[in-house]
Design brief:
The protein is of the alpha+beta class and about 300 residues long. About 15% of the residues lie in helices and about 20% in strands. The chain folds into 2 domains: about 35 residues, no CATH class; about 230 residues, Sortase, Chain: A. The strands form 3 sheets. An 8-stranded mixed beta sheet has the order 4-3-7-8-11-10-6-5. Strands 1-2 form a two-stranded antiparallel sheet. It has a two-stranded antiparallel ribbon with strand order 9-12. The longest helix has 15 residues. The radius of gyration is 33 Å and the shape is globular. The N terminus is likely disordered.
């Protein structure tokens, strides 16, 4: 027969096992008896690691607080007006379309000259942006925004001395080297070639996408840069209105510098491209014969 003490002890042991505790549990039964029960050791979970959250650069915080459409800063060193003032040095905005900042300033109030803004299709974030970021700015007679971008029409000497473009996002600083600059229209009837839709060249999903962009730039460029480019490179495209003919555009394109590169190392590699393609309407207005154009072979 099981006596009362043995029965109580057995019940307590069963309860201890069923409780499932992960540590030893003792049940005192008097000064001379201690019963100990244990469970299987807990499974060890390896610690997980996560990427640190990007931190906004201090110098851009106040601009973002004033206008949360701010996505970066554009600066071209050494582009000066007649008074020695640097003229392409602006925070860059990005809205939900490409018309919002055509006539609104940094404060989002009406402004005839608008502001400098990035193409809206691919948001510029802390972790991503387009393979080719297009930035627009008006050509203002008072010199604001992209008026002095037209200095790159002056020739090889000018681009050699000013071939670096800096475009930093809110989270990282980036430098680019200019590879080309060209004049174009925005309508098919302005040319004897299909319109080069540089403004739609955002992400290069395939090598053909890249080739369409790169070879069309170089086919039209005022100069050959000597800067090697390849599929996988990142670019920045600056676009502004021009005055050679109605609805003309002047465009400057630069490639992001690779590790160990500087823009200065390419200062002597630029050559004037006398065979560049110009829009058909440009030849007509000059009273010149329109040459045959086959287009780039990509």
């Amino acid at each position: 027969m099981i006596n009362k003490k043995q029965f109580i002890t057995a019940c307590l042991c069963i309860c201890a096992v069923l409780s499932g505790c992960g540590v030893a549990e003792t049940i005192p039964e008097g000064p001379d008896e201690i019963f100990t029960t244990t469970t299987s050791p807990a499974t060890v979970t390896e610690p997980t690691t996560t990427e640190p959250e990007p931190v906004m650069l201090d110098k851009y915080v106040s601009y973002y607080e004033q206008n949360n459409d701010t996505v970066g800063w554009l600066y071209i060193p050494g582009v000066l007006d007649d008074y020695g003032t640097e003229r392409i040095n602006y925070p860059v905005l990005q809205a939900d379309d490409n018309s919002y900042y055509l006539d609104k300033g940094f404060d989002k109030q009406y402004a005839e000259g608008g502001w400098v803004y990035a193409d809206y299709k691919v948001p510029i974030t802390a972790t991503s942006h387009a393979d080719n970021i297009t930035i627009y700015g008006h050509n203002m007679k008072n010199g604001d925004f992209f008026h002095f971008l037209h200095n790159y029409k002056k020739g090889v000497d000018y681009v050699s001395e000013h071939n670096e473009i800096q475009f930093s996002t809110l989270y990282e600083e980036n430098k680019y080297v200019i590879i080309g600059a060209f004049l174009t229209g925005i309508y098919d009837e302005q040319d004897n070639l299909p319109t080069f839709e540089y403004f739609k060249c955002r992400n290069f999903e395939t090598e053909d996408d890249y080739n369409y962009f790169y070879q069309n730039v170089m086919y039209r460029s005022f100069y050959d840069s000597g800067v090697e480019c390849e599929y996988g490179d990142e670019f920045i495209t600056l676009s502004t209105c021009s005055t050679e003919f109605l609805d003309s555009r002047f465009v400057v394109v630069a490639r992001k510098l690779r590790d160990g590169e500087t823009a200065e190392q390419y200062a002597d590699t630029y050559e004037w491209n006398s065979d560049r393609h110009m829009p058909m309407v440009w030849y007509t207005l000059q009273g010149l014969e329109v040459p045959y154009a086959s287009g780039p072979q990509y």
